[in-house]
């Protein structure tokens, strides 16, 4: 991979990190600000309210996927990436200044809701624009490796959020964190988004997009349209199905893990946060290695490994996590779960991008992926809390395993995408560079 390709990957990943920092700090700090926007009472009910607003953000992601996917296909990947970070910055500012229930009643919750809607729009386009950009910016035989940096940067954003949470937990009282300290990460996120806006304004467009844009200038009005996407509806439905198991498992062991360890396993909040922090560092380091492996052996073997592991290991892992009792057992189980999920997270971005032609690639990834996340990923935490509130928490474990089982069927029947030519509209094979032994 050349210097220009590395530069594109760096700029795309840095922006993605800030986007997902803003997205995830909502979830990681929810235990501190849940009582600020809703009446006092049952803590689980307060978390369900904030989780419900968290899920609403996911339901805006299909809208964001459509709007920003269209921008990405018609105006370029750079334009879409710049717009997404602008929306995310605005949402972070809104949350940072939102009034509490004691000051404005449910008005504060309304501001929180608007901010999450903006975040949903932003992330709905960010995932696809980033996945498309990283896949197109890399060398053909390194697409798995390059696109794996999407989840490296996503995880880095969450690690940064958890790291900030750990610092605040150790430097501020619990009362101060519940009162006003939870606003700090959203201020940091807004400042970070401003820096990324500058970086993305000066980023380079991908050669794949520029090549197709020049060759299809006469048919530009068809790029990024729902009519064009309908011609590839089989691939769109495939994205929904292959995302289902992965997104539920990912949000279970990242976004929801800290709350689960605190509320169900009985670990102190500081210990639960530290478990997630350490596990995610290892998880991020695994992504490029798995991406490289997929460039050698293909995408399907990794996806199948994830689905088999998630189907049969979710129930025992979650059951043992509930009785972990201390830091090291919880960390070991969390790492086991994240190693399994790596088979999906490391390559799912390039797999989806490889399914579509360039003229509809951003929209083709964005809209069906956002729909799958709205239905399954965004509701995972709420479903988990619903099962817990109903006194049947183990039902959620089986729900996660069932979603993975459905995706397993898809992985077993889908085609391999590693050698598909991104410049071709069909499944045209492109040669993989071979190495000669001197």
Automatic annotation (TrEMBL):
Q: How does it sit in the membrane?
A: Multi-pass membrane protein
| Record protein name field | MFS transporter
Pfam families attached to this UniProt entry = MFS_1 (PF07690)
Q: What range(s) does the Major facilitator superfamily (MFS) profile domain occupy?
A: 8-418
What are the subcellular locations of this protein?
Cell membrane
Listed PROSITE patterns: MFS, SUGAR_TRANSPORT_1, SUGAR_TRANSPORT_2
Provide the family line: Belongs to the major facilitator superfamily. Metabolite:H+ Symporter (MHS) family (TC 2.A.1.6) family.
Q: Hey, what's the signal peptide range on this chain?
A: none
State the superkingdom.
Bacteria
Q: Where are the transmembrane segments?
A: 20-38, 50-68, 80-102, 180-199, 236-253, 273-293, 302-321, 327-347, 359-376, 396-414
Q: Coiled-coil regions in this chain?
A: none
The record's listing under InterPro entries reads:
H+-coupled_symporters, MFS, MFS_dom, MFS_trans_sf, Sugar_transporter_CS
Q: Which organism is it from?
A: Streptomyces pathocidini
């Amino acid at each position: 991979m050349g210097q220009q390709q590395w530069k594109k990957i760096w700029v795309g990943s840095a922006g993605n990190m800030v986007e997902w920092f803003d997205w995830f700090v909502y979830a990681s700090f929810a235990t501190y600000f849940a009582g600020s926007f809703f009446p006092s009472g049952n803590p689980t009910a307060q978390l369900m309210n904030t989780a419900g607003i968290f899920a609403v953000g996911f339901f805006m992601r299909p809208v964001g996927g459509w709007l920003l996917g269209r921008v990405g296909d018609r105006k370029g990947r750079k334009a879409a990436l710049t717009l997404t970070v602008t929306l995310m910055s605005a949402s972070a500012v809104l949350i940072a200044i939102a009034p509490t229930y004691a000051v404005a009643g449910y008005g504060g919750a309304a501001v929180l809701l608007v901010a999450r809607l903006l975040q949903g729009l932003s992330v709905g386009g960010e995932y696809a624009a980033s996945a498309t950009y990283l896949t197109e910016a890399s060398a053909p035989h390194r697409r798995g490796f390059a696109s794996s940096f999407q989840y490296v940067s996503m995880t880095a954003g969450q690690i940064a959020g958890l790291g900030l949470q750990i610092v605040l937990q150790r430097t501020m009282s619990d009362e101060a964190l519940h009162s006003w300290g939870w606003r700090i990460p959203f201020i940091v996120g807004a400042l970070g988004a401003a820096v990324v806006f500058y970086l993305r304004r000066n980023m380079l467009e991908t050669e794949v997009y520029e090549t197709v844009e020049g060759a299809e200038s006469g048919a530009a009005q068809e790029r990024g349209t729902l009519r064009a996407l309908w011609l590839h509806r089989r691939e769109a439905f495939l994205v929904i199905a292959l995302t289902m198991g992965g997104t539920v498992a990912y949000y279970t062991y990242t976004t929801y893990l800290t709350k689960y360890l605190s509320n169900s396993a009985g670990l102190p909040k500081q210990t639960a946060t530290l478990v997630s922090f350490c596990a995610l560092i290892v998880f991020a380091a695994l992504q490029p290695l798995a991406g490289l492996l997929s460039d050698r052996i293909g995408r399907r073997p990794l996806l199948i490994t994830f689905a088999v592991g998630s189907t049969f290991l979710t129930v025992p892992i979650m059951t043992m996590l509930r009785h972990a009792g201390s830091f090291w057992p919880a960390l070991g189980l969390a790492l086991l779960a994240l190693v399994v999920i790596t088979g999906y997270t490391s390559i799912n971005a390039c797999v989806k991008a490889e399914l579509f032609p360039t003229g509809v690639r951003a929209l083709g990834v964005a809209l069906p992926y956002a729909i799958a996340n709205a239905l399954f990923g965004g509701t995972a935490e709420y479903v988990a809390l619903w099962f817990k509130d109903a006194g049947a928490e183990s039902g959620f474990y089986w729900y996660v395993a069932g979603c993975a089982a459905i995706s397993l069927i898809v992985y077993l029947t889908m085609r391999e995408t590693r050698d598909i030519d991104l410049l071709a509209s069909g499944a045209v094979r492109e040669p993989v560079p071979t190495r000669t032994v001197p």
